[in-house]
Design brief:
Order of helices and strands: EHEHHEEEHEEHEEEEEHEEEH
Largest sheet: 9 strands, mixed
Low-confidence stretches: none
Number of strands: 15
Number of domains: 1
Oligomer: single chain
CATH topology: Rossmann fold
CATH superfamily: NAD(P)-binding Rossmann-like Domain
Bound molecules: flavin-adenine dinucleotide
Length: about 325
């Protein structure tokens, strides 16, 4: 068996696959046009939560596998992974706790409770109808992507940045196996017309000292406030668009809505980020195929709004597919 692997993509999918392959003894190299904070992964919030990825019967087991790995990583301070209480609300309807969340300890939250956000910060309660709380892993992307890259390199992995492939067959012949983790880039790379860019924009604001849990309202307008170690991510949007330019009016709308729900003064904006969630209409692609030159390729893309949530489950499945 050829144990020399080229991974296309240095977002969370490519880096996690890199770590798993390298730690299984494969000689592994990553090639990517963009790395780190330049990728979609760098724009993510990034909470563990299955969202905007299909189909549920595939997504939920992979998400639960990933959950367990991420919980273990909370014991590694350098990883930037921590556990946070997520409070998910609905403005318009009674929130149903998803079946998969019940064994993880999800509990209903009644918005009229004074401690709905934290003991000190009170939300604009009248706008929230019902919700549930759940303790989930949070990956601080400013730390986590670097942690994955460092762990990969430490095991002998090599990252080649600023490399753009027109087709997978252009990968050097010394690599017997190619892993496609190109995210939304797979639209051009393998002409996948099933991929849709679900554009997301966020604003990074200073830490809100009294906000200790993540608040999400997932009915329109999508709103979330996610406190990280050094700042707080305010979101968000989910539109069918490939536009990577920051829209100032959208930032204004995000800041206004988050400040309204959290019942705080509008904070300063430290940064704005846009990313294209790689949503695949017929579901995440996790399968082995053959290139025109006879080499094997394993596709691992189309994770939509759940790339972090599915990362370890998918990477392990990719290694399993490699050994077939
Ligand atoms: C605002 C926002 C918030 C989000 N929040 C969450 C969240 O809370 N939790 C969660 O789980 N997910 C979240 N997501 C989704 C998550 O970010 C994505 O699912 C994830 O980043 C996809 O990772 P990836 O590695 O597959 O793709 P990417 O991060 O896009 O990486 C793709 C890589 O492939 C490279 N590439 C592409 N084409 C080529 C080519 N032709 N040649 C060479 N290299 C190429 C790119 O340069 C890049 O390195 C969010 C996304 C956004 C935009």
């Amino acid at each position: 068996m050829n144990r020399t692997v080229a991974i296309i993509g240095a977002g969370v999918s490519g880096l996690t696959c890199g770590v798993v392959f390298a730690e299984h003894g494969y000689r592994t190299a990553i090639f990517a046009e963009e790395t780190g904070q330049q990728t979609t992964s760098g724009a993510a919030a990034a909470l563990w939560f299955p969202y905007d990825a299909e189909p549920a019967e595939k997504v939920i087991p992979l998400a639960l596998q990933t959950f367990r790995v991420l919980v273990d990583l909370t014991r590694v301070p350098a990883s930037g992974v921590s556990i946070i209480e997520l409070r998910q609300f609905s403005r318009s309807q009674e929130t149903q706790i998803p079946d998969w969340a019940i064994p993880l300890g999800a509990e209903p939250v009644i918005p009229s409770s004074p401690s709905v956000v934290s003991s000190e910060v009170e939300t604009s309660l009248e706008s929230l109808k019902s919700g549930f709380s759940l303790r989930v892993p949070l990956m601080d992307t400013t730390i986590y992507l670097d942690y994955l890259a460092a762990r990969f390199r430490k095991t002998g992995g090599e990252i080649n940045a600023n490399v753009r492939f027109q087709q997978l067959e252009d990968v050097d012949q010394q690599f017997g196996l190619v892993i496609n983790c190109a995210g939304i880039g797979a639209r051009e790379l393998v002409h996948d017309v099933d991929l849709e860019p679900h554009r997301g924009q966020v604003a990074i604001v200073p830490r809100i000292e009294r906000l200790s849990c993540a608040i999400v309202c997932d009915d329109a307008p999508l709103m979330y406030a996610i406190p990280r170690r050094n700042d707080c991510v305010f979101g968000g949007t989910n539109d069918l668009s490939s536009d990577l330019a920051v829209d100032a009016a959208t930032t204004e709308r995000i800041i206004a809505e988050c400040s309204h729900v959290l019942n705080i003064d509008k904070p300063n904006v430290l940064a704005e980020r846009v990313g294209l969630r790689p949503f695949r209409k017929s579901g995440i692609l996790l399968e082995r195929d053959e290139l025109r030159d006879g080499r094997s390729v394993i596709h691992n893309y189309g994770h939509g709004g759940s790339g972090f949530t599915l990362s370890w489950g998918c990477a392990r499945e990719v290694v399993n597919l490699a050994t077939l």
